[in-house]
Amino acid sequence: MSPEEPKQEAQESGAWGGGEAAPKPDAEPLREIITPSNKEVIVIAEQVEGQIQPVTLELLGAGRDLADKLGGQLSCVLLGHQLEQAAQTLIQYGAEIVYLADSPELKVYRTLPYKRVITDLLKTFDPPPHILLLGSTTTGRDLAPRIAAFFKTGLTADCTELDIGPYEHTNKADPDKLGLYPGCLYAIRPSFGESLKARILGPWNNPQMATTRPGVMVPLKPDPERQGEIRHIPVNLLPEDYRLEVLEIVREVQSGVSIADADVVVAGGYGLGGPEGFNLLKDLAACFENSAVGASRKVVDAGWIPYSNQVGQTGKTVRPKIYIACGISGAIQHRVGMNKSGLIIAINKDPDAPIFQVAHHGIVGDVFQVVPELIRQLKSAQSVAGASSSEKSLV
Ligand SMILES: Cc1cc2nc3c(=O)[nH]c(=O)nc-3n(C[C@H](O)[C@H](O)[C@H](O)COP(=O)(O)OP(=O)(O)OC[C@H]3O[C@@H](n4cnc5c(N)ncnc54)[C@H](O)[C@@H]3O)c2cc1C
Asked: S-S: 210 plus which of 24, 25, 63, 187, CB 3.0-4.6 Å?
């Protein structure tokens, strides 16, 4: 990306900050300001019962790219108990160093102990790391603002892209800050109903922080040969860190395939007219292997289907091979959760429905006519395929 590109987009989006137009080409060159940093990109890992969560592997993929652009190193902080194997997994997925805090006190996530260990570690870095990344998960959303507040640094939540680039601060209201800041984290996320893609920058302090939602970034291929270092870090909790005690953990039992893991998601919206409309979608989903039924928030709010099925900004981000949207208008808050699916098929009786803007194939029609026909054709194609394969096996 050329340095000119962000300027132009930022002028359009207003994301440049400064409240002033970017400098004219003939303006005096700005002095370069390099904020102290060790160029390290650090991912705060998430694990549940020793299992590294997918969002962490995705962040390592994004972090690798950022570290390469900075010419720095990619590290990971892992907290929990008996996690040597999990630390190796992080190395396979790109971490050069894993800072491992291993203690029974950290087995289950609790805000204050985790914040204590992470901030104790980061305080020892002089200069500080350049970038700190967390998942936009329940844990990440709890932890990230506390770390950001501790270091008095900026934090951009729910990013959909991350990049590195320069920032020119030309606002004369901040004479001390005027200058060109190279190597800034571009934390990019949709804003104003995704009419704009905002690049949000926090060049004044390091670490520059961002969170991304599960399913948005792409992990590297694991490489068992990749070498890395595991550094054990101290766990020194204080009495005030024990304000919360975990008495019991009750996990939701997921029946069937999760929408986040499915290859095919058949999602329904308010156009289904009621909860019984989802029976039709279940029949369509059953035509595919590893499939699941998703939903818009409006139907979840109406109680037609559980929250765990919700796709979108306040639900899950999904990236299946096929996404079939049935009676979903395609509000931006829905689209951000599914627009990176491999193949998007939309069925809606309104030809102007926004879902058609992201669909690869659009069917304008009534779901109650189109979906039964789809099921009929899929079943007949499958029986033909089944017959020909059994014929072949007889030969
Ligand atoms: C802060 C915030 C966060 C949000 N987060 C999310 C989120 O995570 N996920 C999400 O989905 N939404 C989210 N929303 C809500 C979002 O703005 C929309 O209101 C919602 O997605 C609309 O759901 P829908 O498309 O099912 O319903 P509607 O907008 O009512 O659309 C129904 C569609 O069905 C079509 N239709 C009707 N009958 C038929 C038929 N028989 N056959 C075919 N088509 C038919 C209509 O043409 C229409 O396009 C959020 C909103 C806010 C403000």
From this structure: 187
